[in-house]
Amino acid sequence: MAQEVKNDIKKALRVNTIPLVAIMTAVTTVLTMLVKIPTPIRGYLNLSDTMIYFSAYAFGPWVGGIIGGLGPALSDLISGYPQWAIFTFVIDGLQAVLVGLLVKKFNPANIIIGSVVAGVWKVFGYFIAGGILSGFGPALGEIAGNSFQMAVGLIVGFALFIAVRQAYPPLVRLGNLSIKAGE
After folding, report:
1. The whole model's pTM is what?
2. 163 class by beta-carbon count within 10 Å (0-12 exposed, 13-18 middle, 19+ buried)
3. Residues with Cβ < 8 Å from 137, sequence gap 6 or more?
4. Partners of 181 in beta bridges
5. Residue ranges of the alpha helices (H) in 80-142?
6. Alpha-carbon dihedral sign for residues 102, 181, 8, 47
7. How far is Cα 88 from Cα 53, in angstroms, rounded to an integer?
8. Cα–Cα distance measured from residue 95 to residue 183, given in angstroms and rounded to the nearest whole number
9. Which pLDDT does position 172 carry in this prediction?
């Protein structure tokens, strides 16, 4: 199992993947910054989940994890929320890794279950992070907003993946480890 993971990571992180990661990280950062709805515990709701889900579906767990962690964390740093950046990097990066590892076949039930499990991780992770930064009372109030953000991100990210996959079928061959073309 460990050797299989190591091989998957090596295969995903080739030299020709670096420009893809850079571009997708930049797009994720900008999209995360584009829509910012402030929350009571000094955070904000955004569209990061859209790109986290898209990247995990399109490029698999490891590339998706890098994009999903770096993009939103850079947005936190640039947008004046540096206290959230390390939490965001870990929580959002692991969300993408979870999606990539859990979604093995391209079918709606598998995608929904794997994506919701990863989304629940994100909501829980931000509850803990919010509790550390602002107290668990205010963090409890963020659960509904974070759940909404996750649900919107799942729907829009999946729709974006389907649209891009139809428009550019080689997308799946660019490094996706978990969703094979034609499945």
Report:
1. 0.88
2. exposed
3. none
4. none
5. 82-102, 108-134, 136-141
6. negative
7. 15
8. 23
9. 64
- Residue 121 confidence (pLDDT): 98
Instruction: Write down the pLDDT at residue 179.
Output: 46
CB count within 10 Å of CB 139 equals 22
| Interatomic CA distance for residues 28 and 44, integer angstroms | 15
Provide the pLDDT for residue 9.
67
- Quote the CA–CA distance of 174 and 92 in Å, as a whole number: 22
pLDDT for res 166: 83
The residues pairing with 38 across neighbouring beta strands, listed in sequence order, are: 44
pLDDT at res. 180 = 47
What is the amino acid identity at position 69? Answer: G
For 130-179, give the DSSP string. Answer: HHHHH-HHHHHHTHHHHHHHHHHHHHHHHHHHHHHHHH-GGGGGGT-SS-
Mean pLDDT by runs of 10 across the 183 residues of the chain is 70 76 96 88 86 93 95 96 97 96 83 95 97 94 92 94 83 51 45
In angstroms, the CA 1 to CA 145 distance is: 37
For residue 128 the two structure tokens come to 């803990």
Residue type, 24: M
Q: Which two tokens stand for residue 164?
A: 């891009």
Q: What is the pLDDT of residue 36?
A: 86
As a whole number of angstroms, the distance between CA 86 and CA 77 comes to 10
